[in-house]
Amino acid sequence: MNRSASIVLAGALALAAPLAAQAASSASSLASESLTASSGSISDSLEGSSESSSRPVRRAEGDYRVTRVAAAADRAGYARLTLAPAAGQHEGFVLVLPAATADAAGLAAGQVVRAQPQPYGIRFARADRTEPFFLALDDAWQRELAAHPVTL
Asked: Would you give the end-to-end CA distance of the chain in angstroms?
């Protein structure tokens, strides 16, 4: 490698280091939170309820009462949780998540689920517990966390 190529490479690495550190910090905080939670993209996990408009759900915040837990007929191994606003200030929606996640969290009709917006998407936890059971990731975050082959 010649001297100018070495300088360009060193400069590129110096510029990339702060971005890599920031990404690593965000990824590690997400990883620590997700030790007990599964995750999926917002576009795959949130659907409008039959009572809401046809536009896709992208935001959820506050407490929601689980009105129904059912197997997702069109997605093997997944469950659909129908969520109605507990206080009536926002729209209900359907949360699609792995059935094993719903079972492990002990989700059932009548329970209250808390949705908390986060920089990476939406954190879902039962209202009577602090740890999340599911993370609905912003589509861009989901793409970034996906495994990518390394090429040289």
From this structure: 15
Q: Taking residues 32-43, what's their average pLDDT?
A: 63
40 and 25, same domain (yes or no): no
What is the token pair recorded at 122? 């939406």
Instruction: Give Dmax (Cα) for the chain.
Output: 68
**Tokens 């990476």, residue located:** 120
Measured torsion, CA atoms of residues 105, 131, 139, 22, in degrees rounded to the nearest 10 = -150
Domains held by the chain: number? 2
Are 104 and 135 contained in the same domain? yes
Mean pLDDT for 144-150 is 63
Residue 118 maps to which CATH number? 2.40.50.100
Per-residue pLDDT of 70-129, as tens digits, reads 999 999 999 999 999 988 667 889 999 999 999 999 999 999 999 999 998 999 999 999
CA 108 to each of CA 27, 47, 130: distance values in angstroms, whole numbers, following the listed order: 31, 19, 17
Higher pLDDT, 2 or 121: 121
- 78 falls within a domain: yes
> Is residue 151 in some structural domain?
no
Q: Are residues 29 and 44 in the same domain?
A: no
Residue 77 tokens, joined: 């191994």
Same domain, 60 and 27: no
